[in-house]
Amino acid sequence: MKVFVLFVAVAVATWQCQGSDEGDDHGANFQIFPLRMKTGLGGHYIPEVSCQSWMLGVEAHNIIGFSTVPKDCIGYIGNYLVGDQYRSDSKTVCREAYFYLKTLNITDKDAWVFDIDETTLSNLPYYADHGFGAEPYNPAAFDKWVDLGAAPALPESLKLYRKLVSLGVKIVFITGRPLSQRDVTASNLKRAGYDKWDWLITKDPSIYNGKTAVTYKSKERRKIEEEGYNIIGNIGDQWSDILGTNVGGRTFKLPDPMYYIS
Ligand SMILES: [Mg+2]
């Protein structure tokens, strides 16, 4: 009896591994996993699985140009951002930056580029009230939030900033925030603990109106390098912070599942 059961088990396993001979020659009997993967005990739908896949797609820059977070994922993304995972992921990114810094001989011409929103400052208090990116972007409401100058620091980025300052690295902030929000951004940075910098670059609409963040940030980084500085590192939450030219010796991508800026 035992031998028979073993035989059946091996036969079933072999069939499952090879696929049946029915159908075409390309193993098409294996269903390609749909995005809404059925899993778990009983094969029922677990939204977390597809939301996690969606987030991975965003972080890997496979999903681009999205305007809102999928409605089904509000809970998943909210839990991610306000829970420990976001902090842990950010810590992992910054730890790699420390390892990288250890390999360098820092000079007084070395500079480090920080993005601001979702990199040095966190707008989570705002997004928590606006569906964590599931609501369409509302520029008037967001500007009102920015103008409060109350955004807290991302703790891991603040720690990295302090390390860089202690090493004598020049600090560069380049943000997509407009020139009109420069003063409130400066006071917000100070309030959050970023008390000094060498450049705080905001987007001048007379030069960059209609231009992408990649174009704007590349040009501003180039200006700094043309002044004789060497950008050793660059950190941001958007791919547009770290793509383009003059991106720096190494780039570091912080997580941001809430919005996409090209
Ligand atoms: Mg940002």
From TrEMBL:
<dbReference type="GO" id="GO:0045735">
    <property type="term" value="F:nutrient reservoir activity"/>
</dbReference>
<dbReference type="Pfam" id="PF03767">
    <property type="entry name" value="Acid_phosphat_B"/>
</dbReference>
<keyword id="KW-0325">Glycoprotein</keyword>
<comment type="function">
    <text>May function as somatic storage protein during early seedling development.</text>
</comment>
<keyword id="KW-0732">Signal</keyword>
<feature type="signal peptide">
    <location>
        <begin position="1"/>
        <end position="19"/>
    </location>
</feature>
<dbReference type="InterPro" id="IPR023214">
    <property type="entry name" value="HAD_sf"/>
</dbReference>
<protein>
    <recommendedName>
        <fullName>Stem 28 kDa glycoprotein</fullName>
    </recommendedName>
</protein>
<dbReference type="GO" id="GO:0003993">
    <property type="term" value="F:acid phosphatase activity"/>
</dbReference>
<comment type="similarity">
    <text>Belongs to the APS1/VSP family.</text>
</comment>
<dbReference type="InterPro" id="IPR036412">
    <property type="entry name" value="HAD-like_sf"/>
</dbReference>
<dbReference type="InterPro" id="IPR005519">
    <property type="entry name" value="Acid_phosphat_B-like"/>
</dbReference>
<dbReference type="InterPro" id="IPR014403">
    <property type="entry name" value="APS1/VSP"/>
</dbReference>
<dbReference type="InterPro" id="IPR010028">
    <property type="entry name" value="Acid_phosphatase_pln"/>
</dbReference>
<keyword id="KW-0758">Storage protein</keyword>
